[in-house]
Amino acid sequence: MSSLLNRILEAWQNLASRERILVGTALGTVALMGAYMLVISPFLTARSEAADSALSAESQRAAMVRLRHNYDTARSRISVLEERIQANKDRRNILTLLEALAAKADVTVESMQERQSGTDEAYRETRVEVSLKKVTLEQTVKYLHSIESADRPFSIKSLRIKRRSDGSNLLDTTFTVSSFEAV
Predict the structure, then answer these.
(1) Counting Cβ atoms within 10 Å, is residue 176 exposed (0-12), middle (13-18) or buried (19+)?
(2) Is 54 exposed, middle or buried (0-12, 13-18, 19+ CB in 10 A)?
(3) Is there a domain that residue 69 lies in?
(4) In DSSP terms, which residues pair with 132 in a beta bridge?
């Protein structure tokens, strides 16, 4: 190692002053580039990655806050609905109740048919497909509103409204009503 160092010093001393400046500048440039590549560049890369990671984490946190809010809102709605189901003392047949609501809304029901529905551990769902013929939009809205605001917890699951082809402003309406009872 010392012989290599001796040869380098000897070569340096044999250089003219201009050559020494040129070689010194080249060696300094190589040293600066090495320092940049070995120290500064990894530091800048790590800093950039840390900033990106912080932005990603903040974005994920904001998404979690939104999801938590949505969950809390849904949970409170479910709690209110469960309370309504538990408090429901109206044990009348769903078809009878829908007929009574139709009479209040001045609507003549064309047909009502019970449909297959699901049951889970805590609640039994009853579905009825209701068909109205030759009704106005106002009658339809009034009837749907009376169903949604009834004491018994009803839910409108689907709704199809068709304009009659006879040129009148009357509608044919079909919708499914679900009712839930505690098992």
Answers:
(1) middle
(2) exposed
(3) yes
(4) 109, 173
107 falls within a domain: yes
The predicted-structure confidence for 30-41, as pLDDT tens digits, reads as follows 999 998 888 888
- Model confidence pLDDT, tens digit, residues 52-99: 999 999 999 999 999 999 999 999 987 887 777 776 665 668 888 889
Residue 116 phi/psi, 5° resolution?
-60, 135
- Asked if residue 88 is part of any domain, the answer here is no
In DSSP terms, which residues pair with 176 in a beta bridge? 129, 158
The residue to which tokens 């805590």 are assigned: 122
CB 9 within 8 A of CB 23: no
- Considering the domain boundaries, does residue 89 fall inside one? no
The pTM score is 0.56
